[in-house]
Amino acid sequence: MLGHTKKHRTEEYNYSHMSNKKNEVSERSIDWKIAAREALGDIPSTALNLQGLRYREGLTQGQLGQAIGVDQSNISKMESGKRRIGVKIAMRLEEIFDIDYRLFL
Questions:
Q1: How far apart are the first and last CA of the chain?
Q2: In whole angstroms, what is the distance from residue 23 CA to residue 9 CA?
Q3: Cα 102 from chain centroid?
Q4: Could you report the per-residue pLDDT of 9-23, keeping only the tens digit for each?
Q5: For 98, which DSSP code?
Q6: 85: phi > 0 → left, psi -120 to 50 → alpha, else beta; which?
Q7: Could you give the CA distance from residue 51 to residue 82 in angstroms, rounded to a whole number?
Q8: pLDDT averaged over the chain?
Q9: What is this structure's pTM?
Q10: Number of H helices and number of E strands within the chain?
Q11: Could you give the count of Cα atoms lying within 13 Å of 12 in the half-sphere of its Cβ?
Q12: What pLDDT, in 10s, does the model give residues 28-63?
């Protein structure tokens, strides 16, 4: 029944090229938080959370602002880390994104 399958001789196969690539990647890789800080600057994680969730839902800053009752400029300031997200706004965001409001505090 197994006559149609080909048996591989693993003891003769040289896997050293695979381990070299793995080592190259691990030597070049850095923590994602460090990479984000380098790319985006010193933006608070609450701001990144807001921006990421807004993108995930496909909302513009203006649409999100209308939904929670704030100006688009305030959404922009919150996403850039120039304005803190207050508890009341965080609770409105919880309703919009169906996520715990403490993620924004």
A1: 63
A2: 25
A3: 17
A4: 555 555 555 545 544
A5: T
A6: beta
A7: 13
A8: 82
A9: 0.64
A10: 6, 0
A11: 3
A12: 788 877 777 788 778 888 998 999 999 999 999 999
